Amino acid sequence: MHYISGLIAETSRLRHLATSLALAPPAPLEFGLAFLTVDNDDVIRIAGESSPIDVGYDSRGLDAAFIPIVLSLSAQGAILYVQTDYWGGSGEQGALLAENGRAVFGPEHRGILPGPISRALALMGVVCGPEDFDEFEAVGLERHRSNDGWREVAIEEPGRS
Q1: 120 closest CA partner among 109, 132, 129, 133
Q2: pLDDT digit string (tens) for 101-129?
Q3: Bridge-partner residues for 85, per DSSP?
Q4: pLDDT surpassing 50 at residue 160
Q5: Cis preceding-peptide flag for 116 (omega within 30 of 0)
Q6: CA separation for the pair 34, 1 (Å, rounded)
Q7: What is the DSSP letter of 74?
Q8: Predicted pLDDT at 157
Q9: CA of 78: how far to CAs of 1, 4, 34, 100, 148, in Å?
Q10: Which of 5, 45, 67, 159 gets the most CB atoms within 10 Å of its CB?
Q11: What's the CA gap between 156 and 108, in Å, rounded?
């Protein structure tokens, strides 16, 4: 199983967003980026509702109710909203890359390669090394398979417990 949902952006930006949106601290990725988990309960609390995009095959896609929030957050710089839903090698992933208040990639959902998360990460400057399968792996998103796993390695602010 691989099920994550959240935001990817520069680490310092996500630290600020985590505080302002009352979310868990972000977890470190490569390329100066971090991953900020956003669960369904967070979407409801922030957006006032939840409306996952039905991508079929019993997969849950990006949350349509959260997309306007992501677009608004992108006024301060690029931000990537991602979601994966895999079980036993099959499933879907979704991505929306926003910048300056508008979508520059997506929202797109696919289960085939290259995935929308990798394509959006490439637009953010993530480059695969020779040992990386794709940008998803290059940035380190394969390291944890759930939001709980990502929260366990979150970046704590100095002086914050």
Answers
A1: 109
A2: 999 999 998 877 789 999 999 999 999 99
A3: 3, 92
A4: no
A5: no
A6: 21
A7: G
A8: 52
A9: 28, 20, 13, 7, 25
A10: 5
A11: 32
